[in-house]
Specification:
This protein is an alpha/beta fold. The chain has three domains: 3-120, Methylthiotransferase, N-terminal domain (Rossmann fold, 3-Layer(aba) Sandwich), CATH 3.40.50; 143-369, tm_1862 like domain (pyruvate-formate lyase- activating enzyme), CATH 3.80.30.20; 375-433, Nucleic acid-binding proteins (OB fold (Dihydrolipoamide Acetyltransferase, E2P), Beta Barrel). The protein has helices at 12-27, 51-66, 76-88, 104-112, 161-165, 173-185, 203-206, 211-218, 239-247, 264-270, 277-287, 306-319, 346-369; strands spanning 3-8, 31-33, 41-46, 70-75, 94-96, 118-120, 143-147, 149-150, 169-170, 190-194, 226-229, 254-256, 292-299, 323-328, 375-383, 389-393, 404-407, 417-425, 430-433. A six-stranded parallel beta sheet has the order 2-1-3-4-5-6, with helices on both faces. Strands 15-16-17-19-18 form a five-stranded mixed barrel. Helix 12 (306-319) links the parallel strand 13 (292-299) and strand 14 (323-328). Helix 6 (173-185) packs parallel to helix 8, helix 8 packs parallel to helix 9 (239-247) and helix 12 packs parallel to helix 13.
């Protein structure tokens, strides 16, 4: 039996797709390895959200071709470029689109036994979660992502996701709860709920947004310690959602709400909700006093004036958010923003990002310093051979936020949630003891 490896690029949603493909292959008796040098076939699950992500995916593809591997190109790059990719990369033995991951076993059979190339990219993707597959996790640790929906019904000016992933499609509550229970049995103690927009969850299935109902069911799972919600949409972050986060003890008091900008001019150009986001931030803090708020912003969007940027700068300065990510606008074909004018120069985009990140670093440092001497709940991530423990506070999501380094002589294992006294802080990370 041939060995199969997989290289994953992009977001956590892509990671779940990769684990589903590996799970289906494992169910059908294929040998899986995470060391591509030992594999005959390498699946590359690609990202195409922005240009830099495409470059990373393409680099992996050509690296594997140069190493003589049979490659299957899956995910966003295949979906975005459909027919063009076949001519550009003739060395690939197969192409799978974003909604075609359930075809992975048949694809592998055809390229190995029948020696034929496979092109399986649905022209109109609609992602249906393959509930009969048990994911084979490729991340090690106490946390795991659960995809509660796929696709998107919004049409943000900069975003190609609706074209790549199709309409918003939710999973049933019982299927998500069963997956969470199975992950908990395997030792996972934190689950992170993901979708292109988690706050729209259930509207297509149940006739109304049903995130609160899902959270209430997940909160009942005995072996879970933390439930974290990612990717909420600002205009759908209603009081009932916030009150559920505050009320349910296992829901982490962490609000991830990508705002993208605050200027009404830029928000209108982005086709985003045109609101006063300072009111949203104040409402979050009123309902959840201990809330850690994370957001992302895009600088250099076409038409962003100096006045628009200054408004964003002052918003960050005044709101003092816990976690902020800043991205330079990436011009993507087949989006509304591609042809918008005036486009902002690369130099200006880079400078605006630099100014915001320097501002946020100081804000973050001040917030973290105020934690010194206080006690905070943390989840254990890793324990090194020399006894250094790496953990995350409830304010920190996996992979994107900071860490806390702990010194202790007590016995702990990854996944334990412990109360840590903070002893030191910098812009992003903490030190502590318990």
């Amino acid at each position: 039996m041939r060995k199969i490896a997989l290289i994953n690029h992009g977001c956590a949603k892509n990671l779940v797709d990769s684990e589903l493909m590996l799970g289906k292959l494992a169910q059908n008796g294929y040998q899986i390895t995470l060391d591509e040098t030992k594999a005959d076939i390498v699946i590359i699950n690609t990202c195409s959200f922005i240009h830099d992500a495409e470059k990373e995916s393409v680099a992996s593809i050509f690296d594997m071709i140069q190493n003589g591997k049979k490659i299957i190109i899956a995910g966003c790059l295949s979906q975005k470029y459909k027919q063009e990719l076949k001519g550009l990369i003739p060395e690939a033995v197969a192409f799978l689109g974003t909604s075609d991951i359930d075809k992975i076993v048949d694809t592998v059979k055809k390229v190995t036994k029948d020696k034929v190339k496979v092109y399986a990219v649905n022209e109109n993707p609609k992602y249906i979660y393959p509930e009969n597959i048990e994911r084979q996790q490729i991340t090690v640790g106490a946390s795991s992502y659960i995809k509660i929906a796929e696709g998107c019904n919004f049409n943000c000016g900069y975003c190609i996701i609706p074209a790549l992933r199709g309409p918003y499609t939710s999973r049933k509550i019982e299927n998500i709860v069963n997956e969470a229970k199975n992950l908990a049995k395997k030792g996972v103690t934190e689950i992170c709920l993901i979708a292109q927009d988690t706050t729209s969850y259930g509207k297509d299935l149940y006739g109304k947004p049903s995130l609160v109902s899902l959270l209430e069911k997940l909160n009942e799972i005995e072996d879970l310690s933390w439930i974290r919600i990612l990717y909420t949409y600002p205009s759908l972050l209603t009081d009932d959602v916030l009150e559920a986060v505050n009320r349910l003890e296992k829901i982490v008091k962490y609000i991830d709400v990508p705002l993208q900008h605050v200027s009404k001019n830029v928000l209108a150009l982005m086709n985003r909700p045109v609101e006063d986001y300072s009111k949203l931030i104040k409402r979050i803090r009123k309902i959840i006093p201990s809330a850690a708020i994370r957001t992302t912003f895009i600088v250099g969007y076409p038409g962003e004036t100096e006045e628009d940027f200054n408004e964003l700068y002052n918003f960050i300065k005044n709101m003092k958010l816990d976690r902020v990510g800043v991205f330079e606008f990436s011009k993507e074909k087949n989006t509304k923003a591609y042809k918008l004018k005036p486009q902002i120069t690369a130099k200006v985009k880079k400078q605006r990002k630099k100014l915001l990140m320097e501002l946020q670093q100081q804000i973050s440092k001040n917030i973290n310093k105020k934690l010194i001497g206080k006690e905070i709940d943390c989840i254990i991530e890793t324990i090194s051979e020399d006894g250094i423990i790496t953990a995350r506070t409830y304010k920190d999501a996996p992979e994107v936020d900071g860490l806390i380094y702990i010194g202790t002589d007590k016995d702990v294992i990854p996944g334990d949630v412990v109360t840590v006294k903070i002893t030191g802080a910098n812009e992003y990370d903490l030190t502590g003891t318990f």
